[in-house]
């Protein structure tokens, strides 16, 4: 089947081509994001393969459907950027990669915790500058801390397991209780109670209307003063401006994020020679207790291999008329 692969980088090409060897699809790689303006590139392709910052809104979906596209193959777990209602109305099938390596994202979240606590980003630069002073690098023992896991699905569970290994007390908030987390000794509490009790809060739930801006001026009032907030899930779980105010007041003691609500215009590109116009982002990254990475939580060899293999298998299922277990059904 002819597949237009959008937002593609060298690594996508490498791993998708390797996974495609025995499937024989015709993969054509496009670097631009899929938007209403670039939808024309998908003309004549029955399948479009997209990523997290592609814009699969009503306008784009109608454009690509009118050009013959029938399948949207997301090479991600999240699908909040796809208008599922419109896709269903247009008779398009949407598939995704529900699990490729929860360890990759959970380990990255733990990396942010360690980096912020022990200020490894500052320590690294100091030593390279022959500055061996320790002032300003004071951390705290993670052992014995209370860690709040918001969303205790696959990634949240892995994160909880690692933090359990550190000797933390685990609190969880989710619409369902995960039996494996309960076995670890996790105590489920209401969201605001979790914010009030946890020293470290890590977000691992999907972006839905019910979770949009769950970190906002009101919920931040409940946060334990000086707590660490980690977001490796989706940027819009967090009202960034509210977090900036909470950092300035000392309510948020540390903020680590692998995602940003307006990341689509900046992440995954080298903008080092450009003047970034997003003042909120620039202000956020100016604070000494903030670490931002550019949506790299998923970026391990194991995860990328799994994403490529599942994506190609999903496309083959569709091409051969089989029911794909990874189809996303509009609610
Ligand atoms: P999952 O479906 O296994 O777990 C999500 C959990 O969130 C579920 O237990 C679900 O019940 C819970 N949830 C749903 N609605 C909720 C609500 N209103 N309040 C609290 N909890 C709620 O998903 P996962 O594989 O663990 O992935 C979690 C998220 O991580 C994804 O949705 C995606 O946004 C993000 N993610 C980020 C990266 C990255 O590279 N940074 C990579 C993959 C996934």
From TrEMBL:
Belongs to the D-isomer specific 2-hydroxyacid dehydrogenase family. Residues 110-297 form the D-isomer specific 2-hydroxyacid dehydrogenase NAD-binding domain. Residues 3-328 form the D-isomer specific 2-hydroxyacid dehydrogenase catalytic domain. One of its GO terms (molecular function) is D-lactate dehydrogenase (NAD+) activity. The lineage of its organism: Bacteria, Bacillati, Cyanobacteriota, Cyanophyceae, Oscillatoriophycideae. The keyword NADP does not apply. Keywords: NAD, Oxidoreductase. Pfam families: 2-Hacid_dh, 2-Hacid_dh_C. It comes from the Bacteria. It comes from Gomphosphaeria aponina SAG 52.96 = DSM 107014. This is 2-hydroxyacid dehydrogenase. PANTHER family: 2-HYDROXYACID DEHYDROGENASE HOMOLOG 1-RELATED.
């Amino acid at each position: 089947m002819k597949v237009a692969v959008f937002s593609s980088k060298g690594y996508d090409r490498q791993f998708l081509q390797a996974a495609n060897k025995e499937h024989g699809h015709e993969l054509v790689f496009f670097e631009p994001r899929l938007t209403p303006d670039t939808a024309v590139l998908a003309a004549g392709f029955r399948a479009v393969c997209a990523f997290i910052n592609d814009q699969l809104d009503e306008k784009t979906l109608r454009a690509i459907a009118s050009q013959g596209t029938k399948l949207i193959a997301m090479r991600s777990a999240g699908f909040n950027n796809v208008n599922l209602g419109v896709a269903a109305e247009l008779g398009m099938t949407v598939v995704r990669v529900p699990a490729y390596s929860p360890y990759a994202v959970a380990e990255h979240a733990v990396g942010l915790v360690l980096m912020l606590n022990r200020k490894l980003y500052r320590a690294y630069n100091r030593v390279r500058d022959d500055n061996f002073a320790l002032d300003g690098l004071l951390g705290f023992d993670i052992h014995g801390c209370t860690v709040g896991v918001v969303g205790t699905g696959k990634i949240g569970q892995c994160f909880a397991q690692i933090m359990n290994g550190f000797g933390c007390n685990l609190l969880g908030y989710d619409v369902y209780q995960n039996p494996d987390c309960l076995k670890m000794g996790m105590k489920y509490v209401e969201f605001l109670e979790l914010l009030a009790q946890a020293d470290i809060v890590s977000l691992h739930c999907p972006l839905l209307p019910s979770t949009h801006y769950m970190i906002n001026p009101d919920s931040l009032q409940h946060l334990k003063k000086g707590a660490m907030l980690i977001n490796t899930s989706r940027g819009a779980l967090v009202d960034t401006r509210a977090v900036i105010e909470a950092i300035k007041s000392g309510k948020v003691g540390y903020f680590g994020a692998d995602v940003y609500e307006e990341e689509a215009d900046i992440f995954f590109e080298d903008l080092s020679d450009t003047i970034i116009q997003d003042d909120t982002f620039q202000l956020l990254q100016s604070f000494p207790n903030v670490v931002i990475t550019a949506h790299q939580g998923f970026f391990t060899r194991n995860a990328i291999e799994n994403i490529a293999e599942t994506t190609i298998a999903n496309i083959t299922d569709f091409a051969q008329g089989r029911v794909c277990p990874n189809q996303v059904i509009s609610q």
